[in-house]
Amino acid sequence: MKIIKQISDMQRVMKIEKQQGKKVGFVPTMGYLHEGHQTLLKEARENNDIVVLSIFVNPLQFGPNEDLDAYPRDFERDEEIAALRGVDYLFYPTVEEMYQENRTTIIKVEQRVDVLCGKHRPGHFDGVATVVMKLFQIVTPDTAYFGMKDAQQVAVIDGLINDYHLPIDLVRVGTVREEDGLAKSSRNVYLNQEERTKAPYLFKALALGKLQLEVGMEVHTVKQEMEEYILLHTGYKAEYVEIYAYPTLQELKKVKEEESIIIAIAVKFSKARLIDNIVFSYSKGE
User: Which of 13, 95, 188, 230 is deepest in the core (most CB within 10 A)?
Assistant: First the structure.
């Protein structure tokens, strides 16, 4: 595995690999790799000749009073995991390398961002789209792997690829969970012991919502039932409980047979804001 820190070096080696007909799989991350990231790397390794992993904590997607400085980092551990997972190139640029002082543009995301986390974090997905576009231009992958734990991010990247006609296949990889259902996340380390025992109720609330939709309950009723369930079992009020079409993230008042649906939730614990979701094709129960 080779570690590359300069954009020009990354572009040079990718040009050579592509000229040799190699298929490149790309996994962009902000580091502090967990099993969810490793699943992305496993998928990439199994389906590509070359695997590129990027680690870059992107300041553009952190708003005022958010946890940029506190975001967990452990590059030595990440390097070991990357090597074990068969990564060929680890792209590890500095902020100064990625964002020169004379930067003149930023991508503005116009749709799929006024709901869920985007509603509460204005500008966040502009930062995501900008850095992902830069990484795509640097790495020039054939396939890019994103986890569905952040399904809104996947929807935004889906739109980015389609809008700019990027020759990249977006591979959506299912959320990796602990045995008790909690979605794996770098932010789980911020949960105290009591919160850790309550956090799995987020996934249980999603399962409850899915079941209620399938037996014909109205969308607004399902959302209310889920909000009450989360408050009862965690002691925290949900920041949001939403049900939308996916990946358009358009509001649903009623669900239709065979329609792709996302149920998404966010809960702010004392020091950790957790998100979770399930995406499924709606089929009304008998």
Answer: 230
**Is 233 an active-site residue?**
no
Residues 108-161 pLDDT 10s: 999 999 999 898 889 999 999 999 999 999 999 999 999 999 999 999 999 999
Annotated binding residues for beta-alanine = 61
pTM: 0.90
| pLDDT per residue as tens digits for the range 223-268 | 999 999 999 999 999 999 999 999 999 988 888 877 899 999 999 9
Tokens of 196: 């850790």
Choose among 280, 247, 243: nearest CA to 155: 247
Class level of CATH domain 2-173: alpha beta
- Considering only CA atoms, which of 155, 234, 149, 136 is closest in space to residue 186? 149
* CB-neighbour burial class of residue 44 (10 A; exposed 0-12, middle 13-18, buried 19+): buried
List, as residue ranges, the binding site.
30-37, 61, 147-150, 153, 176, 184-187
Give the domain ranges of the chain. 2-173, 186-281
Which class would CATH give 186-281? alpha beta
Q: Rounded to 5 degrees, what angle do the CA atoms 107, 39, 273 make?
A: 60
